[in-house]
Amino acid sequence: xxxxxLGAFRRGRPRYGLSQASLFGTFCVARKTLEEWxxxxxxxxxxxxxxxxxxxxxxxxxxxxxxxxxxxxxxSTDSTQS
Length: 82
Description:
The protein is mostly helical. The protein has four helices and no strands. It has one domain (about 1-80).
């Protein structure tokens, strides 16, 4: 089972960071370390595909744009009915 967790690092960039720098003494240590890395990568690190925003910043920006678009539609509907 440890090989499955470590295999994820062989398929992409992370293997050059975490897996090369860490020696896992036990399966539990490997699991905890990989879960921490995944949390950091998925939520805290900026990604170039999202204009170097963190996933949380990207989600907030997207939500704000959606809300603004809805407000614009509501306002334009209200002004045409008056």
